Amino acid sequence: MVIKAKNLDLTFQTNDGPVHALKGVDLEINQGDFVSFIGPSGCGKTTFLRVMADLEQPTGGEITVNGVSPEEARRARAYGYVFQAAGLYQWRTIGGNIRLPLEIMGVPKAEHAERVAKVLELVELSGFERKFPWQLSGGMQQRASIARALSFDADLLLMDEPFGALDEIIRDTLNEQLLKLWARTEKTIAFVTHSIPEAVYLSTKIVVMSPRPGRITDVIESTLPKERPLEIRETPEFLAIAHRVREGLRAGHADG
Amino acid sequence: MICVILGVMIWAAGWVLNVQLANGLSSEQTSVKIAIPAIFGLTIVIVWELMVRGFEVNPVILPAPSSVLERLFGEGPILWADFQQTVLKGALIGYVVGTVAAFVVAIVADRSDFMTRGILPVGSFMAALPIVGTAPILVKWLGSDWESKAAVVALMVFFPILVNAVAGLKDTNSMQRDLMRTYAAGYWATLFKLRLPSAMPFIFNGLKIGTTLALIGAIVAEFFGSPTVGMGFRISTSFGQLALDMVWAEIVIAALAGSAFYGAMTWLEKKVTFWHPSQR
Amino acid sequence: MCPRKGAASSGGRIEFNWHNEDGCIVKSVLPVLTVVLAILGIWLLAVIPMNMHLVADQAQRDGVIVVPDEPAARQAFSGVGLTWHNPDLVPLTYNFVRPRLPSPQQVAGEMHETIFTKSITSKRSLVYHGWVTLAPTLLGFLIGTGLGVLLAVGIVYSRVMDRSVMPWAIVSQTIPILALAPMVIVVLGSVGIQGLFPKSLIAAYLSFFPVVVGMVKGLRSPSQMQLDLLRTYHASNTQGFWALRLPASLPYLFTSLKVGISASLVGTIVAELPTGARAGFGARMLVGDQYGQPLVSWAALFAAALTAAALVGLFNAIERITLRRMGMAAV
Q1: Which CATH superfamily is domain C126-325 in?
Q2: Do A83 and B178 lie within an 8 Å CB cutoff?
Q3: What does pTM read for this prediction?
Q4: Beta bridge partners of C13
Q5: Taking CA atoms, which of A136, A188, B170, C310 is between 20 and 30 Å from B196?
Q6: pLDDT at site C22
């Protein structure tokens, strides 16, 4: 078990009263899972991701990452985080950006070149090492951001709506590439998204959440095979799962 | 009279030429972009010369450019000595001291949000004050040689650079800081790899402001006491001797030094902040 | 209470502002107070070693035992060292008649006396001197700003002016014309033009170029999208100016105004300096220096600083009110 959350609570105190960003969240994520979190704004999906990353602290319940607290996992550099925006440093080349975590974590310099080449190949950006971020398109920048998260061999990948700002055509390509990458590297991936087809296409497990208070309304184990061409999105099986997700969202909306 | 008419004609010709160049087909070329203000400036100098001759203006009030040029080339050694005293010793050393001090304080203040919130308003306040008024006091404390001038300059450039550095260090957005947290990066790693590079546009803004202030501070401070060398000294004594062309010669040197200093800083800015949208 | 807004980057432009980015004055008061008190504390401590040598000399003349008692031997000691040996002289350093570093209460006392107790028409009143400095500053500032705005409009709408004049406007900001200020005063004085006008000229010059540069930037700030919209309305240049460019330029104008007024004030003060001027802040600073009355210099310096702060603060307030009424946040 990679992630184990039990009765997790996160309450913010604001001027208008307490906001229950997460309430009573129970979840287990296993090694090699691809888990999507989907739900409307305010349902807590990003908050849960950030709790896993030790970017937020829960106010109740417990959570372990790789068997230790999120803080210890963060100190041990156990995961790579991908944000909604690529967030590359404009003053470093793509290669330089990928080297950033390596420099900070003290990875020996001799290994840098090899690692950079390896992850660039994984995201199909080989040869772009010396380019600057503004010379790349939005989709390519986001791929570079993913490469950066892979460069230090963390087994866990936390992705917060990484393709949300991109157009649908690029998104399809990137979804395909992400699946191939996941198959090759066998990492555990937690993926937050707004898009139902994306969630169903990518995941082995779909966590449906709803707001006020932020909670899990459904956990769907996907019955789709591991190898998924894009055409699978038109099969009845796919549509059935998507339908179940939609129902879960609607139910959560009705309560909240 | 002929001179005056000639002057008017040249002014008109220069203007027409510039209109042609500015509205013509090659107006975007770099050579043309430099030529237009150059023609404008040259026209002004020529007209100035002709007007001074034509109206027989008293050289005490406004000397002719030709006499200023004569002085420039004739008094080389004196001008060079003045330049060394004022620009190299007074302005430059003061600038470096002020900049280093500002950086140290900025980084110390950066370690505490409380201190940042205190220093930013106080620093902006001090930057708006007539610091040059401390010159007589500093001359009394540090003597009349270049040290007091450097002190005035250091004080003058300290506040704008400090304010810009503090604001620049504050400017990183939360996503970038979160990314550093996921790498479990410490304060110093975050400072050197993220916050200092992204603060550079702000810092250079302050550094450029400082270049102008440095020269002004050094020259004005010399009005209050100086050994017998220095641009401010030369300006005020030449003035007392009614040698206005020498005054203007010094001003020309000051102008060139000021523009060169500012230009060097701009060049450096382009090299360091090449990535910023304003430079691309 | 204090609203939580996202911090907005001001693109490298820093101005004196009572409010921090969160728009909350309360959150800033305590840190600012701490910094100010810290500075005051350092000042209070520094008074002792700075004045100790002079105090020791005076004390010896008054018959007090001073260690060491040879003036020549005392030269070898630093201010701090001398203090260490003569702790009983410390209180005297705070009230010394001709201090190297006056204590805060001495400066405050002198300012209080020359501002509030002297009649406004007296030659020793700081209010009188303040007005002598302020009048040409304000007049020059108005002239410089007015002309600067006009030139900026000219630059934005005429390519020739843009290409020929604008580079010089930018370059001129790097030329230390301020050094010429006293000369201009004397030259014009010798031709018979004295008083308000020459100083106003300098103040006008110093605010002119910042206003030109800032106003040009502001008039050019509307996005291409906005300009295209006006083209679809077939708006004339004049309509475009009043409806779009001028309102868009106001935040930039206010920034330049603040730079301009500070520059004008400094210019006027420098113009008063080594030219035998008898009135104004600059003159007082010099008089105090020349006649061995440092308190007069320091009081004038602080009064000038307060005037600068008040002017910038006034412009900040005007900026806030104006921009709020227009629904724009300050840049």
Answers
A1: MetI-like (1.10.3720.10)
A2: yes
A3: 0.80
A4: none
A5: A136
A6: 44
